[in-house]
Amino acid sequence: MRKMRRKGLASMAVQTAETPTNPTTPAVDLGPAAALSCRECGHKVPLGPVFACEECFGPLEISYDFSAYDAEELRKRIEAGPANIWRYAPLLPVPADVATKPNINPGWTKLVKADNLARELGVTGGLYVKDDSGNPTHSFKDRVVAQALEAARAFGFTTLSCSSTGNLAGAVGAAAARAGFRSCVFIPHDLEQGKVVMAAVYGGELVGIEGNYDDVNRFCSELIGDPAGEGWGFVNVNLRPYYAEGSKTLAYEICEQLGWKLPDQLVVPIASGSQLTKIDKGLKELIELGLVEDKPYKIFGAQAEGCSPVSTAFKAGHDVVRPQKPNTIAKSLAIGNPADGPYVLDIARRTGGAVEDVTDEQVVDAIKLLARTEGIFAETAGGVTVGVTKKLIEDGVLDPSLTTVVLNTGDGLKTLDAVAGTGLTATIRPNLDSFREAGLA
Amino acid sequence: MRKMRRKGLASMAVQTAETPTNPTTPAVDLGPAAALSCRECGHKVPLGPVFACEECFGPLEISYDFSAYDAEELRKRIEAGPANIWRYAPLLPVPADVATKPNINPGWTKLVKADNLARELGVTGGLYVKDDSGNPTHSFKDRVVAQALEAARAFGFTTLSCSSTGNLAGAVGAAAARAGFRSCVFIPHDLEQGKVVMAAVYGGELVGIEGNYDDVNRFCSELIGDPAGEGWGFVNVNLRPYYAEGSKTLAYEICEQLGWKLPDQLVVPIASGSQLTKIDKGLKELIELGLVEDKPYKIFGAQAEGCSPVSTAFKAGHDVVRPQKPNTIAKSLAIGNPADGPYVLDIARRTGGAVEDVTDEQVVDAIKLLARTEGIFAETAGGVTVGVTKKLIEDGVLDPSLTTVVLNTGDGLKTLDAVAGTGLTATIRPNLDSFREAGLA
To answer: Beta strand B44-45 with B33-38: parallel, antiparallel or unpaired?
Structure first.
């Protein structure tokens, strides 16, 4: 058991009772999803609530059958689809009629042309902010939860659960409520009040765990192996392969919103690293499907200095990521032992990108910079990406003459403490004399 | 001056220096907007930053020239437009190229089919929630501010300003930042912390006024008449006729999202009453333009008991609204002297609707009900509309067999205090024993 635990999620690799036996004929209808495939050894298993390879304990991911698609027809089908992630149903592990089922239908958030920010940062090639605060519970987590929910439905689960740093808790609570699932969410007991209330208000179980996010995650893995966890779909554990695919929709939307073009550079936050790896997967799929022209793109990863295991490994030239104990205001990125860290390193190096980190002070400055220039109030994670973008430009690593997309994955209202110092610039009595006395005239 | 003040906003009726003289040839390009027209006496003046009739001090509103439109062509043009309010540019006081200018581009928010809530309330005819928490700063105010900003640009103003109960402050701060205006926002000094920080983070002036919203509003009217207010566009005072038109987009979107059909019943919150009157205006325009079939609809107004001047007048059969001193948790609706109150009474009576109010306790219950059933976390104003809907059904006033649309105009994260009692359902140590001890297994 010790040895398996070192492999992380691999310890609870396969729940065979739920798994059909023939990998070529999935028993569940999840659209183009054909099988689960090991990212390490390529071993394939049928679609089911499993997340680690039975052969090598590597992480499983969805493999698809896209062979029937014609690029032009597919593009038209997508463009005629709903203004949410289900427009990309042909590219996701969901049934074709997914848009008719009760779900929170996230996505198709704004890609904001950030001309004011571009001027301040000296970007001349076009700067965009993909603003996922527009999702139903105001973070990108709605994308992955909506996916996991469809898998949970397909596998007959009745409870939707997760470990969470906060944003995910709200997304799971909301999605479960809409879709008629019971929810039970596990969070570190000391989260920001806004995230706690936002998760609790949906009426599901909300359980505080005395420990940090890694402790919460370990506990959930234990619960899955226990009879008490039967019928439970943990969106980011036993449903992780499905869940993770939701991040591909960020890549799809960015390209479609750019007029079916790849950006030259993307700056993506790193928590577990899953989002960044799936954005890369999504971009590669669009190229392979002929929906965008094949050209090089660079992916940059962004971390907070107080939780920068991937950035540290990148700078040291390492292939493995050494866990850290998180200590940063960017709690939604505070995963000290990021499961996809090594894949992030691969992608940053392969595409010519980089991984960088910024201090908490730089995070706060970047939140204010984005708000002041573009009217977008970002969560601390958005401060991390904007701050890292600034730093990478100053260091000559990010090319300001190229088209650049920066992700904001959450909402400033959930991390008000970070900017609590901002407030009234003056307090006056309701008359012109008082207005003048305050120097406002 | 006393007498004029009793007419409310009329005291600062006309700023002649900014106003062109020929009502048939507007000097500014605001698309189909032809003139300003008095809602009381019909007197017309050219488009300008004026808000009250020079003849009778009645409120001015935009009159349009829609004569060139063909219904089918217009419908296609709208459907081909952007996924925001500018798809309706042909029906708004904005230039045709509005979508290319820097603005926050709100709208096209979700119309959620609320089947779970319908079951709980016994609605069989189809229940929908128009969820405006999906706007850029998470309230419907982004719609009206985006409109006012275009008017401010057309009139050459350089400062964007407002009096606000909170939501508007954030919307003005964000829009001004994006569009490159200076902003100076006036709010009651004791607002919810979330709204204060959200307004302050955009970097403009944020001035607390020692008084309630009505005091803030009065002060702004004074400032407009003073040289200190020159070049200032107060979105909800001297730009009010343009600003108010933004609410029409709620009507347009609801009908388009229902497949170009009118709903049978709408439940709309009342603060100043402007939103409700403009929704009615929008619905009537769609009928007149032939974009929807002409059939009866009923509009219901919703207030909190602690600020229910319109509801009180409706129940008493009065035509005038007697001001109240607000005392409710629904601060975004806490306007004790609602400018459009009499028009709201007219509309509720003419359409066969009603105006009702609920207690703060019912507001909180309704917030939780909506969250638990639909995964939508509403601001207190959303608790008011859902609570009033429930009450109207129970009282047999709202017909549950008809298609009903309930508005949620804001976001629960901005009024966390209202549901602060919700939180963790349990706190455990990270192991299965502790999980079982807590009765969670």
So the answer is: antiparallel
SS3 B100: helix
β-pairing verdict for A111-113 and A60-64:
unpaired
Q: Please tell me if residue A325 touches chain B, with a CB cutoff of 8 Å.
A: no
Chain B residues lying within 8 Å of A134, measured CB to CB: 134, 136
Across the interface, whether the CB atoms of B198 and A377 are under 8 A apart is answered yes
**DSSP element (H, E) containing A154:** helix A141-154
- Of A196, A216, A214, A215, which is closest to residue A206 (Cα–Cα)? A196
| Residue A73 maps to a domain | no
H/E stretch holding B146 reads helix B141-154
Q: What would the two tokens of residue A350 be?
A: 């392969």
B388 part of a folded domain = yes
Query: Any idea which residue has 């359409």 for tokens?
Result: B351
Find the CB nearest A435 among B137, B223, B435.
B223
CB contact under 8 A, A424 and B207: yes
- On whether the pTM is more than 0.95, the answer is no
- The DSSP element (H or E) to which B152 belongs, if any, is helix B141-154
Instruction: Check CB contact of A96 with chain B, cutoff 8 Å.
Output: no
Q: Rounded CA gap, A46 and A24, in Å?
A: 7
Tens digit of pLDDT for each residue in A228-259?
Answer: 899 999 999 999 999 999 999 999 999 999 99
As for the ipTM of the complex, it is 0.92
What pLDDT, in 10s, does the model give residues A63-99?
999 999 999 999 999 999 999 999 999 999 999 999 9
Q: Are residues A42 and A163 in the same domain?
A: yes
Answer yes or no: is A98 within a domain.
no
Q: Per the domain annotation, does B83 fall within a domain?
A: no
Of A115, A419, A425, the CB nearest to B197: A419
Distance (Å) from the alpha carbon of A215 to chain B's nearest alpha carbon: 6
Strand partners, A207: A186, B426
Same domain membership, residue A124 and residue A156: no
